[in-house]
């Protein structure tokens, strides 16, 4: 860096060069920015054997030992980095206010399972009046995770010693729904990669893995009640997720405060269901009055198909404990239904005049099943836009109109009394050369022409990495740190939306994620514009540090 600073000295970048922070001077920023955070110049150094204790009145939530272990490991990793510095310690204890040897955690109440109503709030106090003891108070175990995450991010090195400034944080999420979609149909994703993604979500205080598990390319969900669906519909019978594996992933996510919401998208996007779904499952398409051998969406005229879905969802309901189920409903092509004479006859008999009404028959069937299973459900926006009748409890996920027309859809959805999740501007699978996180960062989910009542119906948002061009080889690199921009928009105060002040913080946070083994790409700023961006002084070693990920 010395070389670069000298090289650029004298041009307009001197200011930026001054701003470059060598590893031992990292600021200890917290990402996403807490709702309230007061940092002072006073600092404490950390004892390498820092202890975690629960206050006697706190209930013993079952995931606490795992949380403590993980954060103890992460905090210890800072000592490895500090001692690997080539410079000698020249620390003088007198300048520090004290040595932190204990993190005391108080929990009000165990929730045990993350849910839509989870309470993620916490307060964190470092420094006076008790410099040797950090006090973390959380409403539930999720706030313990978030508080320890914030604390760990605050560690920076002063005189080569891991230190934390005296700080008071009061923090809670702005939106309860902070999701991320992965797609395991276009490409199979190894379980270790899914777990690493869950870990990264948790570090970024995102709380939902939206698992788009099946689609037209493959059906990797291995059902026990309908094993032929994956046996015939997966790429190979080895590239499946067994119920045992899924339960393991869900438990892994629970330990990190992340919900797993599965999506079984119907009636479109279902080609891979065809072979295992039986001869009546998909609609045969006709040309010139004859079946042409191709198939369209699920055939909504047969009761057997609803029965199959009920059987499947009854099992899915037991496997995925979250109270939400994503029912899909996007991009249903009507052409094949239109061509099929049995469907035409069914529609005439049942007085259906539009294909949206036919779609409604199917969606109503899915909604009835979800209702019987006491599941809440999310649907893609088409279900609403096509005029399918859905209850007010339905959550509508808005995904179209990246250019800005999503605002009209958000307005329409909330005006009709439905809850909404915004995804349109956060399709991270759409990539181009250069920096794009700033575009994600300035999005405001309530920025549509709605009333205060309508804004209350915005549950949050979801970023997405559709799977056409990613698999285990590149998905994490492509998601991070771009998704961190979305994470901050969904967690932090509405006013935290300026890329300028966020840029250095995000650079630092990306570097910390690297140090923890997450292969987050250098995508914060073009180093031709400013050479100090993208450089990360921490040794990145995904093979050595992978244990932080899964
Ligand atoms: C933390 O404390 C150090 C040492 O006093 C000081 O240089 C630094 O500015 C403080 N950080 C913040 C963010 O205030
Ligand atoms: C979380 O719990 C705290 C008290 O511990 C309460 O003040 C806050 O309103 C709760 N938040 C939510 C979203 O329920
Ligand atoms: C058929 O539907 C139309 C409009 O949807 C309605 O006006 C008509 O009464 C219905 N006829 C029967 C027989 O249900
Ligand atoms: C659904 O929301 C609309 C708009 O807020 C409202 O008029 C209607 O009464 C609600 N329906 C139910 C069943 O709550
Ligand atoms: C927002 O609503 C107001 C009042 O209904 C209207 O005057 C204005 O044109 C709308 N703005 C947009 C951008 O639609």
UniProtKB/TrEMBL annotation:
- InterPro entries the record matches: Beta_hexosaminidase_sua/sub, GH, Glyco_hydro_20_cat, Hex-like_dom2, HEX_eukaryotic_N
| Signal found in the keyword field | yes
Is Signal tagged as a keyword? yes
Which residue spans adopt a coiled-coil conformation according to this UniProt entry? Answer: none
Positions of the Beta-hexosaminidase eukaryotic type N-terminal domain: 30-154
Quote the catalytic activity from the record: N-acetyl-beta-D-galactosaminyl-(1->4)-beta-D-3-sulfogalactosyl-(1->4)-beta-D-glucosyl-(1<->1')-ceramide + H2O = a beta-D-3-sulfogalactosyl-(1->4)-beta-D-glucosyl-(1<->1')-ceramide + N-acetyl-beta-D-galactosamine; beta-D-GalNAc-(1->4)-alpha-L-IdoA-(1->3)-beta-D-GalNAc-4-sulfate-(1->4)-alpha-L-IdoA-(1->3)-D-GalNAc-4-sulfate + H2O = alpha-L-IdoA-(1->3)-beta-D-GalNAc-4-sulfate-(1->4)-alpha-L-IdoA-(1->3)-D-GalNAc-4-sulfate + N-acetyl-D-galactosamine; a ganglioside GM2 + H2O = a ganglioside GM3 + N-acetyl-beta-D-galactosamine; N-acetyl-beta-D-6-sulfogalactosaminyl-(1->4)-alpha-L-iduronyl-(1->3)-N-acetyl-D-6-sulfogalactosamine + H2O = alpha-L-iduronyl-(1->3)-N-acetyl-D-6-sulfogalactosamine + N-acetyl-D-6-sulfogalactosamine
**What sort of enzyme, by top EC class, is this?**
hydrolase
Where is each Glycoside hydrolase family 20 catalytic domain found?
Answer: 175-493
Q: Where is the signal peptide?
A: 1-16
Which keywords describe this protein according to UniProt? Glycoprotein, Glycosidase, Hydrolase, Signal
Q: Which family does it belong to?
A: Belongs to the glycosyl hydrolase 20 family.
Protein's name according to its UniProt entry? Beta-hexosaminidase
């Amino acid at each position: 860096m010395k070389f670069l600073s000298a090289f650029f000295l004298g041009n307009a970048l001197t200011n930026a060069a001054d701003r470059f922070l060598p590893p031992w001077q990292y600021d200890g920023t917290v990402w996403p920015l807490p709702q309230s955070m007061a940092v002072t110049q006073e600092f404490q150094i950390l004892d390498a054997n820092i202890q975690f204790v629960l206050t006697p009145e706190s209930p013993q939530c079952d995931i606490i030992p795992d949380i403590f272990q993980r954060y103890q490991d992460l905090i210890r990793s800072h000592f490895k980095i500090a001692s690997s510095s080539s410079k000698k310690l020249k620390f003088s204890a007198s300048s520090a206010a004290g040595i932190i040897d204990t993190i005391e955690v108080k929990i009000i109440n165990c929730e045990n399972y993350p849910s839509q109503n989870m309470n993620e709030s916490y307060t964190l106090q470092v420094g006076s009046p008790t410099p040797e003891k950090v006090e973390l108070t959380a409403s539930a175990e999720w706030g313990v995770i978030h508080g320890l995450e914030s604390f760990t991010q605050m560690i920076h090195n002063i005189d080569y010693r891991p230190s934390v400034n005296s700080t008071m944080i009061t923090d809670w999420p702005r939106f309860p729904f902070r999701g991320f979609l992965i797609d395991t149909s276009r490409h199979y994703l190894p379980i270790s990669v899914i777990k690493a993604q869950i870990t990264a979500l948790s570090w970024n205080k995102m709380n939902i893995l939206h698992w788009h598990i099946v689609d037209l390319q493959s059906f990797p969900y291995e059902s026990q009640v309908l094993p032929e669906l994956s046996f015939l519909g997966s790429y190979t019978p080895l590239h499946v997720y067994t119920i045992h594996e899924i339960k393991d992933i869900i438990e892994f996510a629970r330990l990190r405060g992340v919900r797993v919401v599965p999506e079984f998208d119907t009636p479109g996007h279902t080609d891979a269901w065809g072979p295992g779904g039986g001869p009546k499952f998909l609609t045969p398409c006709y040309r010139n009055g004859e079946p042409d051998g191709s198939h369209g969406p699920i055939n909504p005229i047969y009761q057997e198909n609803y029965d199959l879905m009920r059987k499947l969802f009854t099992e899915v309901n037991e496997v995925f404990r979250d109270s939400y189920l994503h029912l899909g409903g996007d991009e249903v092509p009507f052409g094949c239904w239109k061509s099929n004479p049995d469907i035409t006859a069914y529609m005439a008999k049942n007085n259906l005049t539009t294909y949206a009404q036919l779609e409604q028959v199917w969606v109503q069937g899915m909604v009835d099943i979800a209702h019987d299973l006491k599941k809440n459900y999310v649907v893609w926006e088409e279900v609403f836009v096509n005029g399918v009748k859905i209850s007010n409890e339905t959550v509508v996920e808005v995904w179209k109109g990246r250019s800005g027309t999503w605002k009209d859809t958000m307005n329409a959805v909330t005006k009709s009394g439905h809850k909404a999740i915004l995804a349109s501007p956060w399709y991270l699978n759409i990539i181009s050369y250069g920096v794009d996180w700033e575009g994600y960062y300035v999005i405001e989910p309530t920025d549509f022409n709605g009333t205060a009542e309508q804004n209350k119906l915005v549950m949050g948002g979801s970023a997405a990495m559709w799977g056409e061009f990613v698999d285990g080889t590149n998905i994490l690199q492509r998601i991070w740190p771009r998704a961190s921009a979305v994470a901050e928009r969904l967690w932090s105060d509405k006013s935290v939306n300026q890329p300028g002040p966020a840029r250095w913080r995000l650079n630092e946070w990306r570097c910390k994620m690297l140090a923890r083994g997450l292969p987050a790409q250098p995508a914060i700023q073009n180093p031709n514009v400013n050479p100090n961006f993208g450089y990360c002084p921490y040794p990145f070693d995904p093979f050595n540090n992978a244990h932080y990920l899964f």
